[in-house]
Amino acid sequence: MTSGHTGTLRDPSDGVHWGTTVASLVVGAAFLALWFWLLPSWQGFDVDTAGAARWRWIAAVPSVLGFALAVRCTWDFGSTGHGTPAPMAPPQRLVVMGPYRYLRNPMYLGFLAGWIGLWVIFGRASVAAIAWACVVLAAVALFVVLYEQPTLRRKFGADYEEYCRNVRAWIPRMHPWVR
C-alpha cells in the first residue's frame, strides 16, 4: 500500500523490509516495557481481587485491544514506513494504511486505552498518579502539534496535507479513508 513515500499503493516487488520492521517492533516493545517497569506501587498500582474488585479484570479487554492496536501500528511503521516510531529513526514513507486510515494517531490512542485498562485493573490510582497522567497526555499532545506534525509536513508535503484534510488526529472516522 505504498508508492514512493506517499503510502497509497503497494508495489508487489517492494517486499517487507524485515530489518526496519524488527527494529520498529523492538522500539515499541522497549517503550511498552519501560512503562510496565514504571508501574510500581508508588504510582498506586496494586491488584486487589476481593469483592467487587474482581470485576476490574473486565478492563483487560480494552487494555489488550489498546496495546494490540499500538503493536499493529508499530508493525506498520516498520513494514510499510520502513522506519520506527522513534524520532531518531522515523518512517521513510508516510503510513496511511490499517488503523491510520481511520485516525492519524492510533498508536497514541492504543497506548492510552491500554493504560486506562491497566489503571482500572490495578484500581488504586491516586490523585498524584492522575495528575501525572494528565501531564503525560498534555506532553504527548504538545509533541504531536509542535514536533510531529510540522516534521511530517516538511517530509511528506502535499501527501501529508491531503491526509490531514481527510483523517482527523484524535477522533476516528466511521469508514476508512481511501485515497
Summarize the amount of helix as a percent range.
Answer: 40-55%
Helix/strand order: HHHH
The end-to-end distance, rounded to whole angstroms, is 11 Å
Kindly name the structural category: mainly alpha
The count of β-strands is 0
Question: How many domains, in number, for the residues?
Answer: 1
Q: Radius of gyration, Cα only, in angstroms?
A: 18 Å
What percent strand? under 5%
**Low-pLDDT runs:** 1-13
Number of helices: 4
Which outline best applies? globular
Mean pLDDT: 79
Main β-sheet, in a few words? none
Quick structural gist:
This protein has helices at residues 18-37, 60-79, 106-122, 127-166. The chain has 179 residues and is an all-alpha fold.
Give an account of the 3D structure:
There is one protein chain. The model is unreliable at 1-13 (pLDDT under 50). The longest helix has 40 residues, at 127-166. It is globular, with a radius of gyration of 18 Å. The protein has four helices and no strands. With 179 residues, the protein is mostly helical. It has one domain (16-166).
